[in-house]
Amino acid sequence: MEYGNNVFIHCKAGRGRSGAVAICWVAYHHRLSLEAAQQYLLERRSKVRKTLYKQKNVNAFYSKYCLNRSPL
Hints:
Blueprint: H1 17-30, H2 34-44, H3 56-66
């Protein structure tokens, strides 16, 4: 996305599995909290599950890869 390209993530309904990948990517790429990343996704795709940020696997990713990154 630094070069103006789009990222496309797809699975059957685009609510759960792809949403989990998307929230992790948004949190990492934009250095957002999980709650802020969830809001970012909901503003762009209202059908995404509203509790993705609470999933154990999403929190594990966030703890491992996002928590100690410096802000932009």
